[in-house]
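To the wet lab folks,

You asked to see what we're planning to order before we commit. Fair enough. Below is the target structure as tokens, and below that is the sequence we designed to fit it. If anything looks off to you, flag it before the synthesis order goes out.
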């Protein structure tokens, strides 16, 4: 059994010797310890009391008390100042909504400083001015809003239901490979939200939902068709499965609808496979006797058998080489290659050719059913079937949603009192 030594303060010993120690404390002290204290002189208890001749006079004591009180205020003020900075540094740059989240701490800090004439010193170290604070402190902050605005006074913001819908839908596993714009238009189509794309992006930022993408500035006007299945893009891309086999994927994409029309997996690199892929597409959509343009790069797979077949009498399709016959590149189908690989193929392990073919079929099906921002919310399959992309297609729906939102937010049963 372990034992420990208990020590007592000298002042407690002196109080016991003088009979001034409280009875409850006295009972907690062992009897042997109290017996030992009784046999000792009070002067033997060590106590760091100064000599009488070294004691300060009353004026000096009063001055020390004031300095100690001021020091306590400074320490407390420093504590609140550090706590405010700790929260604001994370939220940098400082805005009115950020300051309102630490409003209570700022008020406590200013309360201590105003009483002790330290307000001028404090304003030197706060990351905002006195005028800014006066302006911000009168604003109302509501914890039921992502922006901190009262719903009754600012009913134009998205409702609680719409906020939760954005949060839950963007987290769905089936949308992992979708861009935010695709998710937005899908929610519009399902009538789960009714807002503009910029508002959707804004609430995604407030909810910390981001999907980074690279934007490249264009130096020329993109090559665009005015009808589906009139301009096709063809290219080839490589993909290696886990078993080490290199596969060539022959891709054809429609210019107008942006639909991926073909994605053929092969183990050989040849113009004959490119010809077969194109022929299958033209036969499937009954385009053998229609006029059209095929845009390719200057690779060897786009020559030989493919060129011979396109030059057959009666075939009205014309081949154009990107950046030679036209100034534009073949980026339309190159973008499709990246979409297939980086959003669908690289995201999961693919063991062999059989699994690759299955993954490609699922990827093409998912992509062609995904709402596209370039098509203003229509899917490639819909545009391929004859739908015309319309920028104003969802305008009426969004307008009605705004009116309904005003009523929902004005009638919101808020149980919190907004800060003033």
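Sequence we intend to order:
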């Amino acid at each position: 059994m372990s034992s420990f030594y208990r020590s007592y303060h000298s002042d407690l010993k002196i109080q016991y010797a003088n009979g001034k120690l409280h009875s409850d404390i006295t009972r907690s002290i062992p009897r042997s310890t109290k017996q030992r204290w009784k046999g000792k002189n009070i002067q033997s208890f060590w106590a760091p009391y100064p000599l009488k001749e070294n004691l300060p006079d009353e004026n000096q004591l009063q001055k020390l008390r004031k300095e100690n009180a001021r020091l306590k205020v400074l320490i407390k003020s420093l504590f609140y100042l550090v706590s405010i900075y700790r929260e604001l540094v994370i939220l940098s740059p400082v805005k009115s909504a950020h300051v309102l989240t630490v409003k209570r701490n700022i008020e406590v800090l200013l309360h201590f400083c105003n009483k002790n004439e330290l307000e001028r010193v404090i304003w030197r170290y706060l990351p905002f001015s006195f005028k800014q604070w006066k302006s911000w402190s009168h604003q109302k902050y509501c914890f039921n809003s992502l922006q901190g605005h009262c719903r009754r006074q600012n009913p134009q913001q998205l409702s609680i239901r719409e906020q939760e819908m954005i949060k839950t839908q963007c987290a769905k596993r089936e949308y992992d490979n979708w861009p935010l714009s695709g998710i937005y238009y899908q929610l519009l189509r399902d009538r789960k939200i009714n807002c503009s794309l910029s508002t959707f992006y804004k609430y995604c930022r407030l909810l910390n939902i981001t999907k980074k993408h690279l934007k490249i500035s264009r130096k020329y006007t993109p090559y665009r068709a005015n009808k589906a299945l009139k301009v096709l893009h063809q290219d080839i891309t490589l993909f290696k499965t886990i078993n080490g086999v290199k596969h060539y994927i022959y891709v054809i994409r429609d210019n107008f609808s942006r639909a991926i029309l073909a994605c053929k997996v092969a183990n050989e690199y040849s113009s004959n496979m490119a010809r077969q892929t194109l022929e299958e597409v033209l036969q499937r959509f009954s385009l053998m006797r229609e006029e059209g343009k095929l845009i390719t790069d200057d690779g060897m797979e786009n020559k030989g058998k493919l060129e011979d077949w396109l030059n057959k009498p009666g075939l009205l399709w014309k081949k154009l080489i990107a950046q030679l016959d036209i100034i534009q590149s073949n980026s339309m189908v190159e973008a499709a290659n990246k979409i297939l690989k980086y959003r669908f193929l690289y995201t999961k392990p693919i063991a062999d050719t059989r699994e690759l073919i299955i993954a490609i079929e699922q990827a093409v099906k998912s992509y062609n059913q995904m709402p596209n921002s370039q098509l203003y919310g229509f899917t490639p399959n819909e545009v391929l079937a004859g739908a015309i992309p319309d920028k104003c297609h969802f305008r009426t729906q969004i307008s009605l949603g705004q009116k309904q939102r005003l009523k929902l937010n004005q009638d919101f049963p808020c149980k919190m009192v907004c800060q003033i």
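Structural context that might help your review: Strands lie at 231-240, 246-254, 260-266, 292-296, 317-321. The chain has a mean pLDDT of 84.

Thanks,
Computational group
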